[in-house]
Amino acid sequence: MKERIYTIPINEAFDKDSECPICICERKLENDALEYAIGPAMMEPDNRIETNKKGFCANHFAKLYNFEKNRLPLALVIDTHMVEQIKEIEDIFKGYGLSSGDENKGPLKAFKNAFFGMKQDGKAIDQLVEKLESLEKTCAVCDKIEHNLDKLIENTLYLYSKEPEFKKKFINSKGFCLKHFKMLLKKAPKALSASSMTEFIDDIVPLELKALKRVQEDVNHFTKMFDYRNQNADWKNSRDAVPRSIEKLSGPCDLKR
How confident is the model over 49-71, as a mean pLDDT? Predict the structure, then answer.
């Protein structure tokens, strides 16, 4: 098999006993993105512009906070991010002829209602809500992971179509989580030839169905083990069926095992 730098982690993931090799890769991509966000990215103006604008989702804010014992880098990123968000909110507020909040609110409110009317307040609220909702949907770490994961899916399909040894690994794997199963199906028509597409569908769908049925049977067996009549029965492969099933359905998630 011809190894390239970008195919090595994929091959290593498929060599492991996992419910989804792509999940292993995504976890590494996330860890790399977290390290980068409060490491090299801090010294790069373009990246600071991005983090100032986007910030991070609640999940990645928590992971960044727990990631480093030295929280100064994160504090510096948060500081400039908040400065930009305050300015944008203030600009929207002032853009409708509204106060910055320092004046006496009683007379000002009466003036606003008489001169601008309640409609102006409504427009300001709409724009503020739109701005805050858009901020909730942005995350510099999520965007980096998504970009790199998209490339990783392309490389996985490339290996499937070009490397017979990898194709064997693919077919003999335990399938994928539903998230990455979807991504492989979505990317395949652009990454594969028409003939390869037919073969790919014939390989991946039965593989995934077999994997899903196996995990479902393990979960079902787990539930039956709580029947007093089965107190001495064999747990088989069901002891960790619940976390495995969650990861199979949802993709990478932090579960306490």
Answer: 92
Q: What is the DSSP string of 144-188?
A: HHHHHHHHHHHHHHHHHHH-HHHHHHHHTS----HHHHHHHHHHH
Helices and strands (DSSP H and E) totals, the chain? 12, 0
CA distance 253 to 47: 26
User: Model's pTM, two decimal places?
Assistant: 0.85
Distance in angstroms (rounded) separating the CA atoms of residues 208 and 103: 63
Structure tokens of 19?
Answer: 């419910």
Amino acid at 239: R
Helix (H, G, I), strand (E, B), or coil: what is residue 233? coil
Work out the angle between the directed axes of helices 140-162 and 21-37 (0-180°, nearest 10). Answer: 140
Q: What is the pLDDT of residues 109-143, one digit of tens each?
A: 555 555 454 566 778 889 999 999 999 999 999 99
Total Cβ atoms within 10 A of residue 67: 16
CB 166 within 8 A of CB 147: no
Q: What is the pLDDT of residues 207-247, one digit of tens each?
A: 999 999 999 999 999 999 999 999 999 999 999 999 999 99
- Cβ neighbours for 126, distance < 8 A, ≥ 6 positions apart: none
